[in-house]
Amino acid sequence: MRKNVSLIAALFALALCGGWIASAQNPEKDPSKTIQGNGTVLINTTTLCKDVEGFMGPTPVEIRIRKDTIINITPLANEETPGYFNEAVTILKKWIGLTPAKGLELEVDAVSGATFSSKALIENVRAGLQRAMRE
After folding, report:
1. Which of 51, 44, 30 is nearest to 129 (CA)?
2. Do the beta carbons of residue 116 and residue 55 sit within 8 Å?
3. Are the CB atoms for 103 and 39 separated by under 8 Å?
4. pLDDT (mean) for 101-106
5. Facing residues of 34 across strands?
6. What is the mean pLDDT of the segment spanning 55-84?
7. Read out DSSP for the chain?
8. In the prediction, which pLDDT does 1 show?
9. What average pLDDT does range 35-53 have in this prediction?
10. For the chain, domain boundaries
11. Bridging pattern class, strands 69-75 and 33-35
12. Which of the residue ranges 19-23, 82-86, 131-135 has the most confident prediction, judged by mean pLDDT?
């Protein structure tokens, strides 16, 4: 049951992220995934999740994956209130050290007081990890 809920949540996050179908059809025009010379995969959710909003608008992240391990997740420019957003950003460390597949299974609760920002970050990370797993 718990895995079904996680799978449904991940699929729902993908459905909310505009452009993922188009990017799958035209991977050469998809700026959301790049691979550096050292093999590090960078996922940028700016275009991938442009419709996923926190309290004040989109909350994109950059996910770095090396050797199938999430090594860093960095919030990108946004319009969130810094004090609340800084609280929400603390959840990003929960994915560090996991594989993208394990990261998608992870159930992360929103930070009380920064619920909108937290939920948007969670959706961005999940959609980014889904993108990382697609060729």
Report:
1. 44
2. yes
3. no
4. 97
5. 42
6. 97
7. -HHHHHHHHHHHHHHHSTTHHHHHH-GGG-TTEEE-TTS-EEEEHHHHTTT-B-SSSB--EEEEEETTEEEEEEE-S--S-HHHHHHHGGGGGGGTTS-HHHHHH---PPPTT-HHHHHHHHHHHHHHHHHHH--
8. 56
9. 95
10. 2-133
11. unpaired
12. 82-86
Which of the two residues, 4 and 46, has the higher pLDDT score?
Answer: 46
Residue pointed to by tokens 């209130």: 81
The Cβ of residue 83 has, within 10 Å, a number of other Cβ atoms equal to 9
Placement of tokens 């419709």 in the chain: 51
Tens digit of each residue's pLDDT (9 = 90 or more) over 84-97:
999 999 999 999 99
The predicted structure's pLDDT at residue 23:
41
Q: Give residues with Cβ within 8 angstroms of 89, minimum separation 6.
A: 75, 121
- C-alpha 24/C-alpha 7 separation (Å) is 19
